[in-house]
Specification:
Length: 144
Amino acid sequence: MENTDILHMQKHIFGNLFYLRNKLQVIMDQTLAPYDLTTQQWYLLAVMEEFFQTSPTLGELANRMGSSHQNVKQIALKLQGKGFLRMEKDSEDRRTIRIVMTDKSVMMAEQRGAETDIFFNSFFQGFTDKELTDLYHSLLKLSN
């Protein structure tokens, strides 16, 4: 394959990442509206549920989300106001703030469980197992 073809594909992939981000945000915002959540707020809760066994610090959460400490704090404050989480000082280091999921967020995740599975199955409909595996590894490579 020629360099111009490779460059064209790279540009197309890059542009499609932005397109998909916007498309996902519209779909997710519509889906999450009944729960009074935005895509960003849902993402914070999803990252906590998926990647942390214990309540993370703001810094740990920001790092995992690929976002700034300040941005994550603003999202967390909004979620705290809605009753989805609490921001608590760490018992060992009072300067450290830990993010704790509330019963409300756990119940919402349980309610949405089947709905979430249906959404993901629909979103990735038409992909073979190999295509999903390749996409997964390719996106991990781009993320690092």
